[in-house]
Amino acid sequence: MNGIGERIKGRRLSLGLGLREVARRAEVSAGYLSAIEHGDKNDPSLSICHRIAVTLATSVGELFELDGPRPDCPHGSAVWFNPHNGIVQCHRCGEVFVPRSACKGN
Question: Could you tell me the CATH number of the domain that includes residue 18?
Fold first, then answer.
């Protein structure tokens, strides 16, 4: 499994939700969600991550473990995901981040 897949599955199970139910609510196929959870699909779009996060009553930042201080942001500010433009950025300086787990090859 990969990081985001483990966090999605852990959150889903902690809420007592089945994979098919989360997939239906997030408008993705159960097979696709299963592939994310098992690390077979390690580059889901931010839009899909946002739908999954909303379904699991969490944030994309939590799924990517982005909330909280970031060593690569000079302000150490929390980051946020803007679902309108798909950007993950620092609250204070506006610097845009690409989560490592969303990069191909990682």
Answer: 1.10.260.40
